[in-house]
């Protein structure tokens, strides 16, 4: 199964992707996570990406396309993959189509997760992320068992540098201008399904499963 989770920052792409990984035993390919790891390790790519990320802007297409091309060629993507946060521009979507064609693959499902702006802001400013394994929590909607500590690996939970209200507003504008056009892009390719991303994490997961399994959603 080759799936794209599309949606604005805070829509729940990462949360849903992590559940799907366990169910289908295929990897989550999150360009945000890969870039944050590069920033942490201070690789040349991470040093280049940091300024864009801190500002809430997109990292240039050639950087992220290269990351994804390398990642999708790895053996664990053979059975399928879940793209989370990629593509984010029409240029990235065109590049993805081309690279998948070269691998004899295509995208089967694009699930667009809709959540209104006020809820997105509440989710992002309350999000805490594990420094160790990258798992996301929410201080109200999805708290860890022990405050400030990851349930999974015991790592420290922190507020992402780009999760301030000011940067989040910028990220939402960037989404509207550069990523939202992908909704019609994938509708034209007849692979797009949109769902309401409000409600419990489990309810949203069920809606995604119905789509993947070919139901009406
Ligand atoms: P990235 O890390 O991809 O961030 P994003 O797309 O902005 O998405 P988020 O991780 O903020 O949100 P999400 O939808 O995964 O929500 P989550 O599940 O965590 O990108 C960061 C930066 O990297 C970009 O700004 C850019 O600079 C760069 N970048 C990355 N990819 C790029 C690309 N392709 N091109 C160029 N640049 C790129 O959930 C959010 C919160 O809500 C959590 O606290 C969660 O617990 C909670 N929550 C989830 N579901 C629910 C629910 N149903 N009800 C209540 N709360 C919920």
Briefly, what is this?
By secondary structure, this protein is an alpha/beta fold. It has nine helices and eight strands.
Explain the layout of strands and helices:
Blueprint lengths: L1 E5 L6 H12 L3 E3 H10 L3 H12 L5 H12 L8 E4 L5 H13 L6 E6 L2 H9 L1 E4 L5 E3 L18 E2 L6 H15 L1 H8 L3 E5 L4 H12 L5
Parallel strand pairs: 1-3, 1-4, 2-3, 4-8
Antiparallel strand pairs: 5-6, 5-7
Helix pairs in contact: 2-3, 4-5, 6-7
The site of BIS(adenosine)-5'-pentaphosphate has 34 residues, from helix 1, helix 2, helix 3, helix 6 and strand 6.
CA gyration radius, whole angstroms: 16 Å
Proportion of residues in β-strands: 5-15%
Tell how many strands the DSSP assignment holds. Answer: 8
CATH topology: Rossmann fold
> At the fourth CATH level, what is the homologous superfamily?
P-loop containing nucleotide triphosphate hydrolases
CATH architectural group: 3-Layer(aba) Sandwich
Biggest sheet features: 5 strands, parallel
CATH class: Alpha Beta
Low-confidence spans: none
**Count of structural domains:** 1
Bound molecules: BIS(adenosine)-5'-pentaphosphate
Listing every helix as H and every strand as E from the N terminus to the C terminus, the arrangement reads EHEHHHEHEHEEEHHEH
* Beginning-to-end CA distance, first to last residue: 17 Å
Question: What's the arrangement of strands in the largest beta sheet?
Answer: 2-3-1-4-8
Structural class: alpha/beta
Q: What coarse outline follows from CA principal-axis ratios?
A: globular
Question: Helical element count?
Answer: 9
What is the average per-residue confidence, as pLDDT, rounded to a whole number? 95
Summarize the amount of helix as a percent range: 40-55%
